[in-house]
Amino acid sequence: MASLSAVLAIINPLSGTTSAEQKALIRETFLRKAEALGFAPEVAVTTHPGHATELAAHAVLRGVNRVLAIGGDGTINETAQALRRSATALGIVPVGSGNGLARHLNVPLNPLVAVERALRGQPVVIDSAEINGHPFFCTAGMGFEAYVAHEFAQQPVRGLPTYIKTAFRAFWAYKPERFIIDGQERELFSLTFANAGQFGNNAWMAPKANIADGRLEQCEIHPFPAQAAAMLTWRLFNKSLDASSYWRGKAVMKAVVEASGPLRIHVDGEPLMLPDNKADIRILPSSLLVLL
Ligand SMILES: Nc1ncnc2c1ncn2[C@@H]1O[C@H](COP(=O)(O)OP(=O)(O)OP(=O)(O)O)[C@@H](O)[C@H]1O
């Protein structure tokens, strides 16, 4: 008899707005389907931030073929960063509030269907990227989007309605910032480095981003009058932001961004402060296997 192939599912018990019962059902479905397909399934539940990275790194060392991340973009980021440049492939089971990477890759948003896809799927190679050594797979950015990520992290309740309320309030409080990008100074509303095309919830900052082309889309939103906000929001969700005169984009392999103080950024939606005034962004071409 052929030896059983190990598959590990990493579950973040806190991610998204999925109930504990729903997560238990996803876990049971994973175990049942994996066994039926001839895998030797294992489940690990994260107990602290960064735990998914530790679990995934250990799985790589043990030669586990497939690691499923059951969570939001934060859990997927933590899992995927340990799988970079390894033979272990990532399965995405989206239960977050935005699910940007899953949506970009057309992973089913029904977690039970996504489990099956991850177990039956074939590994496909994609790019990843880093900002000051912090890995990202979807988007990293500064300006308004980072401001919203920091405000959102302080809210007691997560989920899309809270995100919309936070972004609306932030819009009136936020003032465009000055950045020096590769030596050229500009005042911007936001600056995004997109590996995948969207932030999540089908908010497409980089409608034409290709996740496997060895490039990031560097997207700038230039300051705009308040009356243009509704049209820009419509374009964001209509996947046509690149047709706006306030949007500028170009494909880059690396970039250096400087500011006059510590840089407030987000990395796959998670808020972060860079203590120095400088961000180094670079693409890591063909660095991750994803089960699709
Ligand atoms: N047991 C835990 N206790 C506290 N934090 C945890 C635990 N397990 C994981 N985390 C942290 O939770 C963070 C957020 O997780 P995740 O992105 O999956 O959910 P989410 O933020 O609700 O979803 P989304 O990013 O789609 O909004 C992760 O980056 C991880 O560091």
Automatic annotation (TrEMBL):
Protein name as annotated: Diacylglycerol kinase
Species assigned in the record: Spirosoma terrae
InterPro entries assigned to the protein according to its UniProt record, in alphabetical order: ATP-NAD_kinase_N, Diacylglycerol_kinase_cat_dom, Lipid_Phosphate_FormReg, NAD/diacylglycerol_kinase_sf, YegS/DAGK_C
GO terms under cellular component: plasma membrane
Alphabetic keyword roster: ATP-binding, Kinase, Nucleotide-binding, Transferase
Gene3D superfamilies assigned: 2.60.200.40, Probable inorganic polyphosphate/atp-NAD kinase, domain 1
GO MF annotations, alphabetized: ATP binding; kinase activity
SUPFAM superfamilies listed in its UniProt record: NAD kinase/diacylglycerol kinase-like
Domain DAGKc: 2-135
Keyword Protein transport: no
Source taxonomy: Bacteria, Pseudomonadati, Bacteroidota, Cytophagia, Cytophagales
